């Protein structure tokens, strides 16, 4: 980036506090802090979460307390802040919503895939906040979206979905896949076949599909022929308690609980197969982390999984509501067969796309 331009960039991210979105925020500010000739202002929940030299911070901790406060912050508070700041060349919102601000150009990074999830009554019973959040985000994506020069997503399927949802042109939605520093896999292959599903105890993660398939497979083969390991212990929330009550008596199922990063890397090494049946994801990080092992994966037959697994050598895709199909794929691996597994072709995103922060900001600042 040309240091002589003396551009002023504002990054707004007041709702980001943890997880993958916080990693994106940190990576973004780390990159900008190293670019000469820029003035960078960051609106954040708390600067200690993402502090880098050369960045001017404005903390807004109260915006996360409710959706009403969040909307007030986006469309009233940020407008007032934008009028006080020196002229802004680019206002880049990193968390789904397009604020009402004064700036030469705007862009928004859309992380949340929930607006594209088909909710069920089961979701409402287990955690009403997820279907509610999905509806609110559909609304939030649309508000003020035409003020953006660009919208940014991580995958091609979401570019198409976001364009349909908002009416924003596909040719101005940038696909910017996340960059990963993939860790070294530890652990040795286990003597028994292990099916691993590492994820959080959220109802859209679809743990019940894997557990139903495991119960069916155990009835076919008998106990002791395989082990299914999940990163829940059955005490986390209503959903995990329901899973434990329904499937906790299956000998082949291990409600292992939370794993540290080191323990997870060891399990990647010992597992026979990664199973990832989640009904919606923005990316699906465990898929990317497991790919370097070259071992089989069984994934949800959904667009996000096909894109994340691009380039993998041994993958089977199953419907997210077909436990028998998943049990069939698991049985193949227990019996040493991979008849229904195959490679996933590598794919190059259509333009516009960006392969890092440098190319993304070059595009946003055109």
Describe this protein with a few key phrases.
Rossmann fold, alpha/beta, six-stranded parallel beta sheet, 366 residues, seven-stranded parallel beta sheet, 2 domains, elongated, 12 helices
A few lines on this structure:
With 366 residues, the protein is α/β, with parallel strands linked by helices. The chain is built from twelve helices and 13 strands.
Question: How would you sum up this structure, described in words?
Answer:
Helix 7 links the parallel strand 9 and strand 10. The chain has 366 residues and is of the alpha/beta class. The strands form two sheets. A seven-stranded parallel sheet has the order 3-2-1-4-5-6-7, with helices on both faces. It has a six-stranded parallel sheet with strand order 10-9-8-11-12-13, sandwiched between helices.
